[in-house]
């Protein structure tokens, strides 16, 4: 049995339920945390039909849902996904245009990056952009501190690209530095662990849980890149009373929206850009470009500017693909509706 408040219930004045929170998903089956305990659930016919037209209506791990009991309260039907307080999305891996919701209703996003050979500032910037876009608060966790000879220098390098974002170095396997996370692991708060394969998320998750729930594998020789050990997203209640959501490692992290998140991640570049002579300045060869002036004066790092430009181009390209895909979907729906109406009226005329 679960009290909704201990699961992080964020709504005041909501009509009577029942409600539940999505803990995991396997194809069309969902596991919900509810006042009746953990129960299995499926989508109602109406929600399934509506979700076919709008992907965002599909429940994701972390979502709050309105449900009805089935089989004397031992299972449930999901009728509605409640408004999300935060949503971490990416474009699904591959060539298509498809939003993949990684986590929802998260208070704090732990962006996990290893301090050894897989340390990558540009990847951290990318994760920061998506974290800020999600509406959750990002915290950078630099793992495997026991395998790094210059921990503080790397922490400072991350702080330089993430001003105002907490940065913590730790070793989950050695059990050091974990006390810094206590401030985020408060009862009813939800944290999500995001990072690439081999970053140490599963080891950290097991430490937070106090048991070996997730399988852990060694990283590959030579590049410290990991093998996928977490195979699905799962929300669990920690001994501290907080909730944690572990996710599979992501080797490909394509932006879904990212516009506001990019501006937040590269706030100093946005501030320089606001002083450019032209509002549509591309920071290339235009006269009166404050960004280029800062670069030439050594105030702005060239690699950071290149990363900003790359993510902006990617976000613009992604937006164009999303708009084109939405237009194709709209036309297809009109075509299907027209065909349905035509068959309907032809049947009446007979």
Describe the structure.
The chain has 350 residues and is an alpha/beta fold. It is 32% helix and 22% strand. It contains eight helices and 13 strands. A six-stranded mixed beta sheet has the order 10-9-8-11-13-12, with helices on both faces. The longest helix has 48 residues. The termini are far apart.
Largest sheet: 6 strands, mixed
Number of strand segments: 13
Question: How large is the count of helical segments?
Answer: 8
The CA-CA distance between the termini, in Å, is 58 Å
Task: For the largest sheet, list the strands in their spatial order.
Answer: 10-9-8-11-13-12
Average pLDDT, rounded to a whole number, is: 85
Beta-strand percentage range: 15-25%
* Structural class estimated from helices and strands: alpha/beta
**Helix coverage percent:** 25-40%
Rg computed from alpha carbons, rounded to a whole number of angstroms: 23 Å
Give the overall silhouette: flat
Helices and strands, in order, run as EEEHEEEEEHEHEEHEEHHHH
Poorly predicted residue ranges: none
List keywords for this structure.
single chain, 350 residues, alpha/beta, six-stranded mixed sheet, five-stranded mixed barrel, 8 helices
Question: Can you summarize this structure?
Answer:
The chain contains eight helices and 13 strands. Helix 2 crosses helix 5 (259-265).
């Amino acid at each position: 049995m679960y009290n909704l408040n201990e699961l992080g219930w964020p709504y005041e004045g909501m009509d009577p339920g029942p409600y539940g929170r999505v803990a995991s998903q396997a194809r069309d089956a969902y596991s919900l945390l509810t006042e009746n305990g953990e129960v299995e659930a499926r989508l109602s016919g109406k929600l399934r039909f509506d979700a076919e037209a709008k992907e965002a209506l599909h429940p994701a791990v972390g979502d709050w849902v309105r449900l009805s009991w089935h089989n004397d309260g031992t299972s449930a039907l999901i009728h509605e996904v409640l408004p999300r307080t935060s949503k971490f999305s990416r474009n699904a891996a591959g060539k298509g245009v498809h939003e993949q919701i990684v986590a929802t209703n998260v208070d704090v996003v732990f962006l996990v990056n290893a301090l050894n050979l897989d340390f990558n500032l540009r990847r951290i910037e990318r994760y920061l952009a998506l974290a800020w876009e999600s509406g959750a608060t990002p915290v950078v966790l630099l793992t495997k501190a026991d395998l790094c000879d210059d921990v503080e220098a790397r922490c400072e390098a991350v702080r330089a690209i993430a001003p105002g974002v907490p940065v913590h170095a730790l070793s989950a396997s050695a059990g050091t530095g974990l006390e810094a996370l206590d401030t985020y692991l408060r009862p009813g708060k939800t944290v999500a662990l995001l990072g690439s394969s081999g970053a140490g998320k599963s080891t950290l998750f097991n430490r937070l849980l106090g048991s070996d729930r997730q399988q852990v594998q060694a990283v590959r020789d030579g590049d410290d890149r990991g093998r996928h050990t977490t195979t699905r997203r799962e929300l669990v209640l920690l001994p501290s009373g907080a909730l944690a959501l572990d996710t599979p490692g992501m080797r490909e992290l394509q932006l879904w929206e990212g516009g506001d998140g990019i501006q937040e991640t590269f706030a100093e570049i946005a501030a320089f850009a606001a002083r450019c002579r032209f509002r549509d300045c591309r920071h290339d060869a235009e006269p009166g470009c404050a960004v280029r002036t800062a670069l030439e004066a050594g105030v702005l790092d060239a690699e950071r500017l290149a990363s900003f430009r790359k993510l902006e181009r990617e976000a613009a390209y992604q937006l164009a693909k999303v708009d084109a895909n939405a237009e194709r979907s709209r036309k297809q729906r009109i075509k299907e509706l027209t065909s349905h109406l035509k068959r309907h009226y032809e049947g009446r005329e007979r």
